[in-house]
């Protein structure tokens, strides 16, 4: 007869033997259960995504350097704006220059569906020593295509206005979302570039950025960078996910292995959890959008008409594209970039706050607030 104590010892012995066999035979199991991984989880209170390792010192230029010499990326800062956005654009750009670009001198590309006024051009050019170009958006890349059923589109807008959906009644807003989703990276002025940083009017940059984020993207083979992620309004995208699933079903070969589906869906792709990267800030690789997978994806979405029959935003469209067509390691959280677009902000914490001489209150940080999706990003690693 075995005593209960002997049973316990026997079962423990079996578990320990199985653990050792699995540790040696399955590398992933070994890594996941290693002491260092487990202590990391306890100390850092969760998973360990790549951004928790600070950017290496070799990327930093001393903060008193006036010009960053050395390697440069093929990159531009991109701004979509109207003439009437001039004050907000200057507000953002002055900070972009002071916190970062005064030293790095990356060129700016401004885009508009109407010609920029002389006043706009003069005031903007005066803010920087970098090259500034002003481009006109081709008519068909901006305006609602003729094959959209206007009766259906206007009925959808009226319904959204009735339901108080933000920008629900606006056609220009929809043109903007469609242009940012599928056309900006094809503009003539952006053709020479590989990387871009999207900047909007009226945003804040809180910290000095003494390293070149484009080189961090390039060297790490990253394709999409963000600072804030959150949930999309369901009312703006009722059929978007079904359309995405249809596309995946028809094009399984275009989806990346090791993608970031877990950021978008909590059930393996069955439904969309509405998480997206907030696209008013993006540092990205234009070739992600120009590639076969995203090009086909955008055309597929576009011909469904959801940019006009609903109000599909460029944020969910880009986020779904990046998450499906890149590997999850290629999506980068720019932890060092303190950033605010009303009403949310990312404020770096601890050492990163100190190093960037950030002027945001570390207590005001969206990262792990209830409406943020950063925990879903973290859990992928
Ligand atoms: N040229 C042009 N640019 C536009 C138009 N509408 C919006 N934009 C730009 O597109 C970007 C996004 O527009 P926003 O109005 O900031 O949209 P949003 O960020 O969703 O909403 P806000 O909370 O109002 O900032 C900004 O860079 C705007 O300047 C437009 O009709 N024409
Ligand atoms: Mg905005």
From TrEMBL:
InterPro entries: Glyco_trans_15 (IPR002685), Nucleotide-diphossugar_trans (IPR029044)
Span of the signal peptide: 1-23
Any one GO biological process: protein N-linked glycosylation
GO cellular component: Golgi apparatus; membrane
Pfam entry (one): Glyco_transf_15
Catalytic residues, chain numbering: 282
Similarity comment text for this entry: Belongs to the glycosyltransferase 15 family.
Protein name: Glycosyltransferase family 15 protein
């Amino acid at each position: 007869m075995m005593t209960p104590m002997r049973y316990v010892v026997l079962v423990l012995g079996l578990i320990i033997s199985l653990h050792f066999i699995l540790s040696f035979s399955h590398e992933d199991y070994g890594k996941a259960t290693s002491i260092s991984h487990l202590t990391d989880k306890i100390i850092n209170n969760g998973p360990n995504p790549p951004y928790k390792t600070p950017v290496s010192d070799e990327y930093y230029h001393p903060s008193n350097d006036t010009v960053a010499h050395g390697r440069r990326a093929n990159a531009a800062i991109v701004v979509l704006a109207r003439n009437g956005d001039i004050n907000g654009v200057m507000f953002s750009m002055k900070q972009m220059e002071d916190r970062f670009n005064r030293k790095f001198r990356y060129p700016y590309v401004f885009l508009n569906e109407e010609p920029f006024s002389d006043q706009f051009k003069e005031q903007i050019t005066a803010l920087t020593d970098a090259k500034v170009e002003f481009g006109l958006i081709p008519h068909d890349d901006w305006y609602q295509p003729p094959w959209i059923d206007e009766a259906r589109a206007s009925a959808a807008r009226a319904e959204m206005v009735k339901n108080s959906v933000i920008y629900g009644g606006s056609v220009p807003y929809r043109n903007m979302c469609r242009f940012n989703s599928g056309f900006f990276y094809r503009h003539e002025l952006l053709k020479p570039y590989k990387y871009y940083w999207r900047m909007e009017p009226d945003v804040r940059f809180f910290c000095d950025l003494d390293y070149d984020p484009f080189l961090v993207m390039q060297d790490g083979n990253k394709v999409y960078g963000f600072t804030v992620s959150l949930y999309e309004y369901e009312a703006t995208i009722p059929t978007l996910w079904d359309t995405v699933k249809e596309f995946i079903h028809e094009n399984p070969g275009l989806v990346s292995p090791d993608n970031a589906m877990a950021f978008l869906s909590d059930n393996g792709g069955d439904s969309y959890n509405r998480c997206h990267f907030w696209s008013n800030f993006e540092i990205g690789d234009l070739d992600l959008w120009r590639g076969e997978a995203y090009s086909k994806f955008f055309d597929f979405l576009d011909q469904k008409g959801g940019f006009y029959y609903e109000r599909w935003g460029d944020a969910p469209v880009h986020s779904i594209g990046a998450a499906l067509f890149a590997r999850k390691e290629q999506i980068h959280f720019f932890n060092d970039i303190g950033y605010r677009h009303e009403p949310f902000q990312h404020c770096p914490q601890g050492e990163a706050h100190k190093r960037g001489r950030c002027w945001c209150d570390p207590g005001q940080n969206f990262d792990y607030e209830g409406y943020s999706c950063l925990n879903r990003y973290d859990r992928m690693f």
